Amino acid sequence: MTASIIDGKAFAASVRDDVAARVGQLKKSTGITPGLAVVLVGEDPASQVYVRSKGKQTVEVGMNSYEHKLGADISEADLLALIESLNDDPAVHGILVQLPLPKHLNEDLVINAINPAKDVDGFHLSNVGLLGTGQDSMVPCTPLGCLMMLREHHGSLSGLEAVVVGRSNIVGKPMAQLLLGDSCTVTIAHSRTKNLADVVRRADIVVAAVGRPEMIKGDWIKPGATVIDVGINRVAAPEKGEGKTRLVGDVDFASAAKVAGAITPVPGGVGPMTIACLLSNTLTACCRANPETSAA
Ligand code: GUN
């Protein structure tokens, strides 16, 4: 069997087109332009790339982008003061603080200072609690993108066996909640799980978010299963020349694609969906903040 490829790049483009059309309607009918503020602390190169990409795509769908780039040595009090001012700014409907933060800043404190209604990452305790109890919340972007691809591929997920490999607050835990919400039987496994290969082999749906390059091999995959690879790992690629690198996922794509029914590639799978869902969450936050609008 050769897996069909789930094209996250094309799917993300269609989500962005839909957001752009709804933003256009909103502006025309109400004069309101959704605004997303992104806060970057320090100069982590990967974070800089993500933040640039988020800003560019925000503008492309017709929304306002507010970028706040702060020195790595900013004090917690100054960062909290910026968040407070963004909370109070009616032109800002979504706030995202790019993670990880430098060690001297308390991530939990910073995230929970964001107004939950503007928490487009869905990381605030209040949104985590709402998601966990099946209530309307802001849903973290990466798991939401994964869920959208799974629904698109399968239709109903009801009764399917899902194994999430990875237990992070950003991906693993919210992913498990979303799959449970769609009536999957969910296991959260991780790097310390005993007999991990056997656990993964039970799954109709595998979501790999463990952060270890090409850890999940083809012979761990049940024939015909759907594999969603959240990993983005840069590894050496001596075959491309000295000092060259390439991106790989948490799944060994070559072997898994021979067994799976469907699989997301890296790059071009989950990655583009994350930003598309961020734009969608920002529009949702804007519409909820302006209940007289009907575009939510
Ligand atoms: N760093 C890696 N992924 C994310 C994300 O989804 N949101 C934020 N804020 N930071 C991240």
Task: Describe the 3D structure.
The chain has helices at 8-30, 45-60, 76-88, 107-111, 125-132, 141-154, 172-181, 196-201, 253-256, 270-289; strands spanning 4-5, 35-41, 64-70, 94-97, 161-165, 185-189, 205-208, 226-229, 233-236, 245-248, 262-263. It folds into two domains: 30-118, Leucine Dehydrogenase, chain A, domain 1 (Rossmann fold, 3-Layer(aba) Sandwich); 141-272, NAD(P)-binding Rossmann-like Domain (Rossmann fold). The protein contains ten helices and eleven strands. The strands form three sheets. The chain has a six-stranded parallel β-sheet. Strands 3-2-4 form a three-stranded parallel β-sheet, sandwiched between helices. By secondary structure, it is α/β, with parallel strands linked by helices. A hairpin with an 8-residue loop joins strand 9 (233-236) and strand 10 (245-248). Helices cover 40% and strands 16% of the residues. The model has no long low-confidence stretch (mean pLDDT 97). Helix 1 packs parallel to helix 10 (270-289). The chain starts with a strand and ends in a 7-residue tail after the last helix. The protein is globular and about 50 Å long. The structure holds guanine (GUN). Guanine binds at residues 96-99, 121, 141-142, 170.
Radius of gyration: 19 Å
Please report the distance between the alpha carbons of the first and last residues: 41 Å
The total count of helices amounts to 10
CATH class of the largest domain: Alpha Beta
- Strand residues, percent: 15-25%
Low-confidence stretches: none
State the secondary-structure class.
alpha/beta
* Helix fraction bin: 40-55%
SSE string, helices as H and strands as E? EHEHEHEHHHEHEHEEEEHEH
**Shape category:** globular
